[in-house]
Amino acid sequence: MLDLRVKQAETALAEGRLEEACEILRQAEVRATKWGQDLIGDVVEALVARGREHLAAGRLPQAQGDADRAAAMGGNMTHVAQLRAAVAHAVESTQRRERRAAQLLAAAKQQIDHGRLSVGQRWLAGVSTTESRVAMLMRDVDVKKSTLETSLAAAIAANDRDDLAVAVRETISARDAGGADERVDEICAKVSEKMKTRLSAFVDSGRLDLAESMTQQLAMLCGETGDVQQFR
After folding, report:
1. Cα–Cα distance measured from residue 115 to residue 133, given in angstroms and rounded to the nearest whole number
2. Are residues 31 and 37 in contact, defined by beta-carbon separation less than 8 angstroms?
3. By the 8 A CB rule, do 129 and 190 touch?
């Protein structure tokens, strides 16, 4: 029976089924034999070799598993200790990269949320393209840029034809998409100046219903500024 177990371990080793070989060789009666001891050395060598292959391919969990199995079977031999140290270094480096990527993603998202699309895009460029959240944020930037350009063009056109209601709506849409773009500030200033001129005319002519409606629009565009309070 003991000879059969040793033979099974030899076959498992030969066929690359190292986990199975380890299970057999953990049995005390097998380890106690000379054949068992010889096989343990061979299995440790095979685990270290496979662990190095996993490490080179970036398969860190598998490399860690082989290193741990090799240490459990053969103790902290030099080549086993070297493999474990190399895996630990790779894991630490990976964790550092992941933390850095998370920081860059958070910074990029903050910039994008505040309308600084180009800045956010530059932050995203520093993150690995394998990170799925990068693709999502890139799509978000593309959508916001498209909305910004479309809304800006519509706001400028509406302002030129004195359609202030549309100009306000489109300016707000552009600001929501890319509020840090200086063109948004420019069109916002132009639209608000026209609105204040028209508001003054409404008030002077006693058209208070129109003045009230436009004051609400001005507040939506500019916030509760001193001018808005004065018109109220």
Report:
1. 18
2. yes
3. no
pLDDT one-digit tens code per residue, 137-179: 888 888 888 888 999 999 999 999 999 999 999 999 988 887 7
**Residue closest to 45 by CA, chosen among 16, 23, 20:** 16
> What is the rounded distance in angstroms from the CA atom of residue 133 to the CA atom of residue 113?
15
Give the CA-trace dihedral at 62, 26, 46, 75, to 10 degrees: 90
Handedness of CA 79, 84, 87, 93 (dihedral sign): negative
Residue closest to 21 by CA, chosen among 63, 70, 61: 70
pTM for the structure as a whole: 0.56
Residue type at 29? E
Kindly provide the b/e burial profile for residues 115-135, where b requires at least 16 CB atoms within 10 angstroms of the residue's own CB.
bbbebbbebbeebeeebeebe
